[in-house]
Predict the structure.
Amino acid sequence: MANGKANRMLEAKIERKVKETIDRYSLCSKKDRILVALSGGKDSTTVAYLLHKFGYNIEGFHIDLKIGEYSEKCLKAVKELCKMLNIKLHLYDMKTQMGSGMCYLRSAIQEASGKGKLKNCAVCGVIKKWIFNREARKLGMTKIATGHNLDDEAQTFLINIFKGSPQLSLNSGPISKNVSDKKFIPRIKPLFYVLENDIREYTKSKNLPVVYDKCPCSFDSYRIQVREFLNTLEEKDKEKIIKNFEKLYSKLKIIKNPQIKYCSKCGEPARKELCKKCELLILNR
Ligand code: AMP
Ligand code: ZN
């Protein structure tokens, strides 16, 4: 098939899936002010590109993780994208705001917690989510959009099952619905049903400014193992995993929300006395 035609088909397929996901799960409306968490990678770039194309009110948000040359490339790509889309970009500098770059902070926390106890990506994930929520709220945003794709979600779903905690997948739907609180800004995943390979092809065919390197910090051996296993399957099998997730998700919705408290240290929504981020940072004292 000629390249042009294949690209147009892929474009139509991705756009249809994203539109369907937005409608089916009521991810966002034209009234929302959406902060797109932009890493500089292909997924979040695609989210911003499509939400902008569909006429949503979006602004970009980038955490400069201060991981050397990798972070410099990401910052450059994000700036280029926001300029191209003519949207506002909000920057968060890990060194000035948190006192150190993400890698350094993460290793200090892991060191303090005891070797092998905390996975790299889990630590970064907690800190990033804390930053997204706080900054989005300060900016008066009503939604936070991230680039999580079908492959990420299939991995998470399987990992939660292997861990014996499928209820953790409640955090993994196309929209966060486990917390309902005025201080909590809902997170949405417009690419929930889009395969990673399709997103890669899409950003390449559109020539979008994207950093394709993996974060040098993203070393979670268990997730890598699950990803490698999933990549031995056909794409339609990955889609089936997500279909099974849906069955569980619809049941999990009815579980009563636990009472939300506010972290006694930072004031952010929390399930316990301290939020997850403050629990981690306390280790780093
Ligand atoms: P990750 O946890 O690195 O797989 O990233 C998941 C999602 O979080 C990405 O698709 C982005 O939407 C967002 N994200 C990751 N890193 C950053 C960053 N440095 N700045 C802003 N958003 C980010
Ligand atoms: Zn806290």
